[in-house]
Amino acid sequence: MPVLEKHKAEQEKSKVHRENYVFPKLPVPPLQQTLDMYLKCMKHLVTEEQFRKTKAIVEKFAASGGLGEILQQRLLERREKTKNWVYDYWLEDMYLNNRLPLPVNSSPAMVFPHQNFHNQSDHLRFAAHLISGVLDYKALLDAHALPPDCARGQLAGTPLCMEQYYRLFSSYRLPGCKKDTLVAQKSSIMPEPEHVIIACKNQFFVLDVVINFRRLNESDLFTQLEKIVKMAANEQERLPPIGLLTADGRNEWAKAREVIMKDSTNRDSLDMIERCICLVCLDEPTMLEPADTNRALQMLHGGGVDKNSGNRWYDKPMQFIVGMDGACGVVCEHSPFEGIVLVQCSEHLLKYMRRSPAKLVRAASVSELSAPRRLRWKCSPEIQGLLASSVDKLQSLVRNLDLNVYKFKVYGKEFIKEQKMSPDAYIQVALQLAFYRCHRRQVCTYESASTRRFQDGRVDNIRSATIEAFEFVKAMTEGKSSLPDSEKMQKLWSAINAQTNHTVLAITGMAIDNHLLGLREIALEMKMEKPEIFTDETYMISNHFILSTSQVPTTVEMFCCYGPVVPNGYGACYNPQSDHIIFCISSFRDCKETCSTTFAKAMEEGLLDMRDLCIKFNTPKKASVSEGSAKQGKQEKPGSKP
For domain 402-511+546-632, is the CATH number 3.30.559.10? Predict the structure, then answer.
């Protein structure tokens, strides 16, 4: 196949990588180290009385010969017997046990640059080109020819585990009444999927992309997409928007799926969706301005039942969205892989589409291509009732999401690097400052950190709400007039250094969250009464992440967004570029304490104040910053609520 010849060098490089490098197992941190760090992380986030109680509980748990040592030993034994001792525990805790609907609550989205489609042909040509890019990328994965990822920063050059990539187009999240199942298809059991599901006008169509062992070229894909659009326009054959059921709570969707499965026609349709390579959703125009926020909302939830929310199937990891109004991107079911895998795949597609289309051998003449097949559904009155219930809940979710996509234009990561500071640590401290200015308190914060340096590594948590960050934000807010700027600068450096140290601990397998989770789950497996350390109020507070953050950098024009993980929280995704930073701030409207626009404005003010400190004490004045944007003082204000 031509694509394999094109990537021969990468394949050889990847082969050498796989054969010569053995990934170490994820370590189990020393018990006392984790417990000491846990107390340090929580001391300033709970009351003094609560902390005294927690400290006593932790000391009892850590006592020589006590429960902590017993569980730690079992965890060490588990490490010897498994590739990654925390993987299954983490996957279930983070995703599969979560009963909330996938859209907004779990599934992140990548928003592509706005496209200008002048007509339906432009729209479908883009979709055909995108599908061709997906097949190009899948061919690399199937041949294990993808160049290996390597770490950057302090551990630059360290190879990273690539296993997550191989679940992009071969997995499916199956709903369950108590917990979901991540189904990873194996070619030895089932044949490789050779079809894509096209969603159009809330209908689903099977598009075969391999015929007689050859891939369809873009011309044939375009022809097949034209046929699908014509078929979907036939109102007499239009079926109810079954896809809406996948946007419901996981328990509700699991029960609905059981009802659907009673009919053989429905079983066949479900099977085709669950085994497909991916979905491509041809969306109707929304009639909204093509602003970043509006396009992001379209990716996250489809805009509501009257727009494109029914034109989805959320259980499939990769759903590419191609809107007639130019809103394009991808929404992913998050359990099989992390954001970097989504970024790498998306960047490959966008770069592929900027190049000239590959000249593939034609699979068949247009006249020989059989028409795509519409998936049929038998909808009983019971299913109709379940659909009606799903519609109401989805509409509520759509109304509730408060999203603000905000581009900070005064400076970007190059200015931060000039300060000899980590851009990620700097932005994390700025997030702490913004939250404190909005709410006059510090809260438990989640920042994902990759553990892909280890076998089957996923992520652990960088606890960014450090005591050092707390001291800095108080100095910048409560001591604004009384504390010397030089002391504020010292506190900023302390906060940056603390954040950097926490990051190194997390990426080297020494963070506390996965370790505590493992100890808790080992106790459950041993059928013990849940240890007091895990029923303590401090532990509950420590796992309620009001601020859920993630850096998702890109090298091409696009950005990532997601919703909050708790009802009174914020989602804060950021993409630092050389001269600007893109923030996607989300919250829920029915929480009276939170507001995404207010938070975005506080981010702007904090970043400007931090810049002023750095210019005054940390570096020579830069004309581009101090004499240009610094004189302006403020930039264009973040947008209001959509």
Answer: yes
Every domain range in the chain assigned CATH 3.30.559.10: 402-511+546-632
Report in angstroms the alpha-carbon separations of 176 from 34, 250, 251.
34, 7, 6
Burial 542-569 (b: 16+ CB within 10 A, else e): bbebbbbbbbbbbeeebbbbbbbbbeeb
Choosing from 123, 195, 301, 334, the catalytic residue is 334
| Overall pTM > 0.85 | yes
In Å, how far are 48, 475, 540, 549 from 45, measured between CA atoms?
9, 17, 12, 18
Angle at 408 between CA 154 and CA 549, to 5 degrees: 50
CA dist list (Å): 10 to 13, 65, 347, 427? 5, 52, 17, 34
CA distances from 263 to 3, 117, 378, 379 (A): 41, 40, 7, 9
Over the range 575-598, which residues count as b (16 or more CB within 10 Å of their CB) and which as e? bbbeeebbbbbbbbeebeebbbbb
Whether pLDDT at 110 is above 90: yes
Length of the chain: 642
CA of 396: how far to CAs of 104, 243, 309, 335, 399, in Å? 12, 17, 12, 24, 5
d(CA 625, CA 633): 10
CATH 3.30.559.70 region(s) of the chain? 100-377
Contact 224, 210 (CB under 8 A): no
CATH topology of domain 100-377: Chloramphenicol Acetyltransferase (3.30.559)
Separation CA 633–CA 626 (nearest Å): 10
Residue 211 CA to residue 360 CA, distance in Å, equals 13
Find where tokens 């990654």 sit: 84
Q: What is the pLDDT of residues 186-205, one digit of tens each?
A: 644 456 779 999 999 999 99
For residues 376 and 239, is the Cβ–Cβ distance under 8 A? Answer: yes
Residue 21's pLDDT band (cuts 50, 70, 90) = confident
Instruction: Identify residue 72 by its one-letter amino acid code.
Output: Q
Query: Based on the number of CB atoms within 10 Å of its own CB, is 491 exposed (0-12), middle (13-18) or buried (19 or more)?
Result: buried
| Distances, alpha carbon 127 to alpha carbons 176, 219, 622, 634, in Å | 33, 11, 45, 40
Strand duo 328-332 + 210-211: pairing: unpaired
Question: Can 144 be counted among the known catalytic residues?
Answer: no
